[in-house]
Structure formats: C-alpha cells, structure tokens
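Pinned message: reference record for Nucleoplasmin-3
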Amino acid sequence: GCELTANTKSYTFQVDEEDDSDHILALSVVCLTDGAKDECNVVEVVGRNHENQEIAVPVANLKLSCQPLLSLDNFKLQPPVTFRLAAGSGPVHLAGWHRIVHREDASFEEDEKLSEEEEEEVELAPIMPAKK
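Predicted structure (tokens):
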C-alpha cells in the first residue's frame, strides 16, 4: 500500500525491467484516513497506452461526508504505474497486492498442449434443448 497526501502527491510502483517474470498489481481499496478534510480527493492512475504515450485515468473521487472509501475489486494494472492525487489534500490510503508470475519453461508448455490428433479425439456431449 501507499499513502498520498498534500506533501506526497504521487507514488510510482516499478519492477526490475530485466526481471523475466510477469508482474500483476491489483488495486483493492482506496480510502481517506485520519486527518482528511471534507473535500473532493481525486486519485488517478497514470500508465502507458499501447502507443507508449502517458495516459491518466481517474479511479476514485472520495469525500469524507459522502464516500470516504471505494472498493476497486482488485483492479489489475501492469507496472510501471503511478498513483497520483490529482485533487484534494488527502491523506488517501491505497491498498492492494502484487503477484509475480514466473514464466514457465517453453518445453513444459509444449508438453501440456494436446497434439492435433489428440484434439480431434476429444468428443463433446451433444447439446440438449432445455426442458420447459
């Protein structure tokens, strides 16, 4: 997790570029914490699109009196990603998880695939009409 405040408006989550693993960052909860004022606090996620251009997307608009917490149901992101407090003074706490998926050996993946002959042998049960 991290905390965004008037003094610390952004936090960047990065991984080692030379790492041969896939990284998934999931954002679970964004919430106001002790000391927050009753003002709009807008949290943005800043990343890169398919053309490698920076793009910022607001993911939360929190206000102490009406919505102090937002569950993002493990909103998955691809690192590197920056969380930025675009409006308000916080403090806003962000919580989530980071999963590292080690890439499998290519020969192992090939063993797991069915050959064309094996795929043809697989029979599917016929689809029956629903009973009324």
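Pinned by admin. Summary line: The radius of gyration is 22 Å.
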